[in-house]
């Protein structure tokens, strides 16, 4: 049943990183959700995360049989579907923690904004691939910016600042690889700075608060600053070797909120210590390094653009999530790839890994072949 | 091809990612290594709750084993130590429920900043407040109800100046290291026996450390040190006699329209105090939870000073009770024989100083002079003795120095002499001053406890015992930790013969024709002496001092009513009530 050609050519270094992180993540989810304590449904989160990891591996393996270039044709319908989905969230979405991010599909609540990230990468790569020759001046970029802007605004409206910024990170990766000029970067940087007060006005009150609290966590030690303070205490108290799995007092006694989703890294810090989190961060570096390598070796622009977008997405997630749990970034709902509990997020990330493997497995066929 | 032509663009990105990961690892090193100890403490502080278990103070019993002071469980309202600050809305809600201003709550929190313990906001909260807190516990994160022992003065005002009261240690007491190892919020004895025996009564607080979750639910107890209850005290006080004495005092004060009084009842052969009364009084329970403004004003604005134990700190001219000293000195120094008759013409021959009511008794001997409290006779004794001899005997009888009773705040009293007068008033000493001293007026001052000790020495044929209030100190299992034996302070330099003469004179006081003939009706014979202390500020203070049975004394009772007028009028009824309690009702009263 296994396709020899696929099995022999897989990037096992990349897979090693992904599987290890997913495994560590499942252990930490177990710790954070008290799977060690005897209670009904104690394995609920662990089971679901493990199950979806397995399902995604199967789906991923199946998808490796197809050439990723098929996506070029699917890009536009996906883009449209994405817009429809995001609009659906706006009108039919379930509100959790002040943000409308979920829609209920049978037994699943899915978070379209997670899939939106994947779709954004594919759609943008396909869109840019067609225009790659027109991107040597600013005018050529305008349609690209517009292409990102529409879903960006929709996600921003949910409101999901984290995901909308992921779009920008993907765009940034694409801009760099396509040689967006330095002077334009500088000009845009100043432009954003100048528009900062305007952007401040666009933000929701709770988002502004998060930024205020980020600048001074002591501002509301029991309000929005609470997460960050408790998260920093958790990480810091892990010291060099950590308190051990299931032994983190911050997570076990629930001082750390949302500890199996967005703050899973704090649990890692508390239970595995500096040595543990360093290994985790280096595993992310390994995955990203393999991503770059695949981008480098891609045999067409589309593959290279895809790989760059994926790498940009992972990098942004790790930076923002770890930065937020350790108090150097404002709190935005960005999960840690492979480790945070969340079916939508895990699925998206695994699909992106599949896509990287696919790029690696399907070099351009020569024309005369 | 983008990647082939512009590989360096990917490399730049790769380096950027390496930099990002390095920054994140650096951040981890900062949090976990450089600041690790700090965050470790924070996480310990999160999960552990350290609570003191207050040691119950020792119980105070009267001589018959009746509990006078004990502890009752009280609800204490505290704020858990979690982080540095408390939610403003919690403080706001607490302020409304506890009726304590928010600023005051913040002040209390600030004061106990250095403690890792919960901040105690209110001790012994009322049931209404406890109910309100319990109902709103969900909206009051960090607020705790603890059950802790609260001092309870069972009989309220009874023997308040003797028992004293407890209160929170003051900043002054902490800053000056008066109580080693005690923290802000600790309860100490502030007054009376509670203060004098605080080291025994206090006990040692225990503690427990608990692991709690984010909602304050106890996950497990980490360690626990049981408190060590304080030592109990068995007093010499007889609560029943104390009640009788206080009731008699209150009744008498009301009928006289007077407000201040002191009573001492003691066993002359042991120095054990059986009853000790001081008026005006107050309820010590007022102080237990921090005294209210209203109660404090009531105590503070009372010109008769309820906080002063008049039995040990009130200083009065001893009045005619001092004639015991003058008489003893004159007999012992052979300045007069018991048989010598001295003519009382109503005034002394050298100076125009008279009897109190201007009466003249004619030719009288020592016994008559003492029982009738004749001033002219004792002026002559003063004249014959001189002030120096008089003062010498006064000191031997215990005047002018603390008796050593086991209470703080005892006064010295005063034995006046020419040097004192020169120093204080810049005046020479006159014969008239000696006359005044001889009858206990003028400069001399004595505390009721001194007068009681003086009379006890006469009753015991010369042995003077230190007065004391505590018979035994108990261990917390009820066994005896320490017993106090009678302590002999000294013997009177007066022969047995002469003391008998004095005693006979005192017995005559309660016979027909004596100044306290009222006491002749008691089932036992009583020896006594009235006295009137001149008071330049108002009505005279009335003394009556007595012991009974006259032949084999077991009880000395003395009483002074401030501004009560003549001793026979003011104090005799009080002493009589106490003697009746001790020895039985008057035969006349029973008959009629």
TrEMBL record, chain A:
The keyword Transmembrane helix applies. It is a multi-pass membrane protein. It is found in: Membrane. InterPro entries: FtsW/RodA, RodA/MrdB. It holds the Pfam family FTSW_RODA_SPOVE. One of its GO terms (molecular function) is glycosyltransferase activity. GO terms for biological process: cell division; regulation of cell shape. Its EC number is 2.4.1.129. One of its GO terms (cellular component) is cell division site. Keywords: Cell shape, Glycosyltransferase, Membrane, Transferase, Transmembrane, Transmembrane helix. The chain crosses the membrane at residues 12-33, 45-66, 78-97, 140-156, 162-180, 185-203, 263-289, 301-320, 340-359. This is Peptidoglycan glycosyltransferase MrdB. It comes from bioreactor metagenome.
């Amino acid at each position: 049943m296994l396709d020899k050609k696929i099995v022999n050519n897989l990037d096992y270094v990349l897979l090693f990183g992904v599987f290890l992180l997913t495994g560590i993540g499942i252990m930490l989810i177990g710790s954070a959700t008290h799977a060690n304590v005897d209670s009904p449904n104690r394995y609920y989160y662990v089971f679901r995360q493990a199950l979806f990891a397995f399902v995604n591996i199967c789906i991923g393996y199946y998808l490796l049989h197809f050439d990723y270039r098929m996506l070029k044709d699917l890009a536009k319908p996906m883009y449209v579907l994405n817009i429809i989905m995001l609009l659906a969230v706006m009108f039919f979405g379930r509100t959790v923690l002040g943000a409308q991010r979920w829609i209920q599909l049978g037994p699943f609540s899915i978070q379209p904004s997670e899939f939106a990230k994947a779709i954004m990468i594919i759609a943008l790569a396909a869109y840019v691939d067609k225009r790659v020759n027109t991107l040597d001046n600013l005018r050529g970029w305008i349609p690209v910016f517009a292409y990102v802007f529409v879903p960006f605004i929709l996600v921003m409206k949910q409101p999901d600042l984290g995901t909308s910024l992921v779009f920008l990170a993907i765009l940034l990766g694409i801009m760099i690889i396509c040689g967006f000029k330095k002077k334009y970067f500088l000009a845009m940087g100043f432009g954003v700075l100048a528009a900062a007060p305007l952007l401040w006005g666009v933000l929701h009150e709770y988002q502004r608060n998060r930024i205020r609290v980020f600048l001074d966590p002591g501002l509301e030690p029991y309000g929005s600053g609470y997460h960050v303070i408790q998260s920093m205490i958790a990480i810091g108290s892990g010291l060099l070797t950590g308190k051990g799995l299931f032994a983190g007092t911050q997570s076990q006694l629930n001082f750390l909120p949302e500890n199996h989703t967005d703050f899973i890294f704090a649990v890692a810090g508390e239970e595995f210590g500096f040595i543990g989190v360093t290994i985790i961060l280096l595993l992310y570096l390994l995955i990203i390094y393999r991503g770059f390598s695949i981008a480098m070796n891609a045999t067409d622009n589309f593959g290279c653009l895809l790989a760059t977008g994926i790498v940009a997405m992972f990098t942004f997630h790790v930076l923002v999530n770890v930065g937020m749990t350790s108090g150097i970034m404002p709190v935005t709902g960005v999960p840690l790839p492979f480790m945070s509990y969340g079916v939508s997020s895990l699925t998206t990330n695994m699909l992106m890994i599949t896509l990287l493997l696919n790029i690696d497995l399907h070099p351009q066929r020569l024309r005369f072949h | 091809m983008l990647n082939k032509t512009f590989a360096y663009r990917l490399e730049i990105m790769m380096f950027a990612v390496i930099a990002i990961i390095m920054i994140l690892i650096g951040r981890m090193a900062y949090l976990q290594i450089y600041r690790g100890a700090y965050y470790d403490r924070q996480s310990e502080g999160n999960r552990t709750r350290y609570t003191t278990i207050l040691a119950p103070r020792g119980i105070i019993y009267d001589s018959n084993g009746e509990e006078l002071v004990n502890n009752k469980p009280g609800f204490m309202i505290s704020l858990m130590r979690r982080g540095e600050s408390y939610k403003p809305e919690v403080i706001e809600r607490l302020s409304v429920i506890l009726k304590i201003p928010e600023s005051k709550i913040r002040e209390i929190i600030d004061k106990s900043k250095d403690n890792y313990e919960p901040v105690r906001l209110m001790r012994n909260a009322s049931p209404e407040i406890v109910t309100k807190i319990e109902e709103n516990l969900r909206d009051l994160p960090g607020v705790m109800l603890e059950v802790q022992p609260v001092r309870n003065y069972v009989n309220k005002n009874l023997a308040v100046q003797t028992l004293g009261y407890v209160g929170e240690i003051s900043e002054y007491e902490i800053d000056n290291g008066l109580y080693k190892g005690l923290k802000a919020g600790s309860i100490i004895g502030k007054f009376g026996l509670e203060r004098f025996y605080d080291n025994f009564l206090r006990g040692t607080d225990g503690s427990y450390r608990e692991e709690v979750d984010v909602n304050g639910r106890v996950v497990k107890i980490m360690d626990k040190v049981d408190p060590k209850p304080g030592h109990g005290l068995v007093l010499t006080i007889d609560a029943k006699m104390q009640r009788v004495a206080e009731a008699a005092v209150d009744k008498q004060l009301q009928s006289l329209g007077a407000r201040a009084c002191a009573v001492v009842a003691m066993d002359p052969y042991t120095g054990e105090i059986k009853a000790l009364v001081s008026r005006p009084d107050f309820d010590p329970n007022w102080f237990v939870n921090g005294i209210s403004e209203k109660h404090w004003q009531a105590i503070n604005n009372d010109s008769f000073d309820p906080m002063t134990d008049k039995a040990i700190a009130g200083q009065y001219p001893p009045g005619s009770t001092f004639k015991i000293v003058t008489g003893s000195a004159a007999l012992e120094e052979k300045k007069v024989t018991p048989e010598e008759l001295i003519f009382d013409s109503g005034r002394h021959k050298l100076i125009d100083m008279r009897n109190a009511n201007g009466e003249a008794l004619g030719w009288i001997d020592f016994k008559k002079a003492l029982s009738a409290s004749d001033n002219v006779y004792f002026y002559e004794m003063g004249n014959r003795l001189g002030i120096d001899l008089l003062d010498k005997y006064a000191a031997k009888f215990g005047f002018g120095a603390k008796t050593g009773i086991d209470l703080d705040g005892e006064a010295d009293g005063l034995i006046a002499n020419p040097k004192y007068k020169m120093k204080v008033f810049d005046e020479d000493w006159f014969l008239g001053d000696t006359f005044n001293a001889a009858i206990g007026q003028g400069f001399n001052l004595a505390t009721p406890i001194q007068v009681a000790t003086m009379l006890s020495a006469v009753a015991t044929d010369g042995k003077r015992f230190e007065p004391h209030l505590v018979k035994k100190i108990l261990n917390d299992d009820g066994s005896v930790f320490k017993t106090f034996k009678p302590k002999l302070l000294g013997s009177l330099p007066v022969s047995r013969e002469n003391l008998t003469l004095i005693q006979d004179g005192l017995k005559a006081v309660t016979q027909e024709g004596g100044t306290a003939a009222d006491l002749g009706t008691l089932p036992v014979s009583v020896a006594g002496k009235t006295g009137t202390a001149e008071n330049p500020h108002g009505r005279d203070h009335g003394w009556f001092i007595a012991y009974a049975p006259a032949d084999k004394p077991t009880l000395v009772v003395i009483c002074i009513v401030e501004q009560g007028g003549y001793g026979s009028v003011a104090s005799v009824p009080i002493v009589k009530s106490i003697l009746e309690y001790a020895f039985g009702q008057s035969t006349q009263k029973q008959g009629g």
